[in-house]
C-alpha cells in the first residue's frame, strides 16, 4: 500500500490540509482495497491550524518512510520554517520520496533547495514573491500544477485536488483516478490553467503622464480596428516614441495593451451576456473570430466557450 504523509505546520490552510486526506483516504483499487495509507505528520504533537488545534499522530521521521509527502499551504508563506522540518524534507528527498506541494506549500519546498533549477507554480497572488525569493526556480503562475517527476507543485487550494488526482493517475492509472474524481464531484482534468482566474491588470500610469489621455481614448475606442499608426497620430507622437513611452510607463506595447483591454471587455461580455462568441469578437474590436479565440486562449489560458461555462453568472429568477 502506498503511504502518503501530509505535513502539518502552524497556520496551515485547512482546505489544503483536508483535501489530500479526503482524496487519498477514499481512493479504492479495482478490487475494493484502499489504495493509500495516510499519515498526518508534524514537528510537534500539537499544531495550531488557526481555526482549530490539530493533534498529529506521527512525527517528522515518518516523512522519510513515506512514498509521497504532501506540503499544504500556510497562511503566511514567508514565515520562517523550522530547520528540523527542512532537514527532514531534504532527507526524504534524498531518499527518493516524492514531494508535492499545494498552493503556498511551494514556499516550504522551495526553502529546502530541492526545487532549485526546476519549474514550479503556486497561487497566482504569491507567484511573484516566490520568484523573487527563489530566483533559481522557474515560476509559472498560469498552470494548475507542475510535475517534475519527484517534485510537484500546484496552484491554489482547488488546484491541490487536481494535483492529487494526477498523482493517483500516475500511481494506479486513469480508471482508479476517474473513480476518485467522481467521488470528489470533480472532472479528472480541468480545461485551462489558473491563468483564467488571474486579474490581468496593468501597471498604473502616473497621473499627469502624457499617456493618460491616450489610454482613455484607446479604452473608449477598443472596438475599432486601431493600428499603431492610429494611436501614434492621436498621441501626436512618432510610432517609435509611442512604443518607447508605453514600455517605460506600462511595461508593454500599445497594441498589446489594447489587446488585453479587449480581452477584459470580452471576459465581461462572456460572463454577463448570451451574445455568441463571434459577436463578442466583433464588439471588442477583433476583425476575425479566429484571431479573437487565439488571443483569448493565449491571455486567459482557456477558450471563450470554456471561460463562459466556468464563470457565467446564473440567470436570476423573477
Please describe what this structure looks like:
It holds the Pfam family HTH_18. It comes from Planosporangium thailandense. InterPro entries: Class_I_gatase-like, DJ-1/PfpI, Homeodomain-like_sf, HTH_AraC, HTH_AraC-typ_CS, INH-QAR. Keywords: DNA-binding, Transcription, Transcription regulation. By secondary structure, this protein is of the alpha/beta class. It has two domains: 2-197, 3-Layer(aba) Sandwich (Rossmann fold), CATH 3.40.50.880; 211-311, Orthogonal Bundle (Arc Repressor Mutant, subunit A). The protein is 46% helix and 12% strand. The chain is built from 14 helices and ten strands. A six-stranded mixed β-sheet has the order 2-1-5-6-10-9, with helices on both faces. A two-stranded antiparallel sheet has the order 3-4. Helix 1 (14-26) packs parallel to helix 6 (157-172) and helix 6 (157-172) runs antiparallel to helix 7 (174-183).
Annotation keywords:
318 residues; alpha/beta; Rossmann fold; Arc Repressor Mutant, subunit A; 2 domains; 6-stranded mixed sheet; 14 helices; 46% helix; HTH_AraC-typ_CS; transcription; Helix-turn-helix domain-containing protein; transcription regulation; HTH_AraC
Amino acid at each position: 500500500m502506498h503511504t502518503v504523509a501530509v505535513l502539518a505546520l502552524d497556520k496551515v490552510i485547512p482546505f489544503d490540509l483536508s483535501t489530500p486526506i479526503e482524496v487519498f483516504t477514499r481512493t479504492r483499487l479495482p478490487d475494493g482495497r484502499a489504495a493509500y495509507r495516510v499519515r498526518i505528520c508534524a514537528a510537534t504533537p500539537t499544531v495550531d491550524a488557526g481555526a482549530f488545534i490539530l493533534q498529529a499522530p506521527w512525527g517528522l521521521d515518518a516523512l522519510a518512510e513515506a512514498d509521497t509527502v504532501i506540503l499544504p499551504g500556510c497562511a503566511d508563506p514567508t514565515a520562517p520554517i523550522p530547520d528540523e522540518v527542512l532537514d527532514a524534507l531534504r532527507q526524504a528527498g534524498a531518499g527518493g520520496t516524492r514531494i508535492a506541494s499545494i498552493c503556498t506549500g511551494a514556499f516550504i519546498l522551495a526553502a529546502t533547495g530541492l526545487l532549485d533549477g526546476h519549474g514550479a507554480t503556486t497561487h497566482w497572488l504569491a507567484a511573484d514573491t516566490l520568484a523573487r525569493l527563489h530566483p533559481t526556480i522557474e515560476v509559472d503562475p498560469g498552470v494548475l500544477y507542475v510535475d517534475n517527476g519527484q517534485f510537484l507543485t500546484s496552484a491554489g487550494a482547488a488546484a491541490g485536488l487536481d494535483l492529487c488526482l494526477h498523482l493517483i493517475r500516475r500511481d494506479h492509472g486513469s480508471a482508479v483516478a476517474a473513480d476518485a474524481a467522481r467521488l470528489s464531484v470533480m472532472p479528472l482534468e480541468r480545461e485551462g490553467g489558473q491563468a483564467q482566474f488571474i486579474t490581468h491588470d496593468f501597471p498604473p500610469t502616473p497621473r499627469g503622464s502624457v499617456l493618460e489621455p491616450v489610454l482613455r481614448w484607446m479604452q473608449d475606442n477598443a472596438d475599432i480596428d486601431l493600428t499603431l499608426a492610429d494611436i501614434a497620430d492621436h498621441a501626436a507622437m512618432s510610432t517609435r516614441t509611442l512604443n518607447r513611452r508605453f514600455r517605460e510607463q506600462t511595461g508593454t506595447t500599445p497594441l498589446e495593451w489594447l489587446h488585453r483591454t479587449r480581452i477584459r471587455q470580452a471576459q465581461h461580455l462572456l460572463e454577463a451576456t448570451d451574445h455568441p462568441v463571434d459577436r463578442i469578437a466583433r464588439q471588442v474590436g477583433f476583425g476575425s473570430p479566429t484571431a479573437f479565440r487565439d488571443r483569448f486562449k493565449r491571455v486567459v489560458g482557456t477558450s471563450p466557450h470554456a471561460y463562459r461555462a466556468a464563470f457565467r453568472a446564473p440567470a436570476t429568477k423573477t
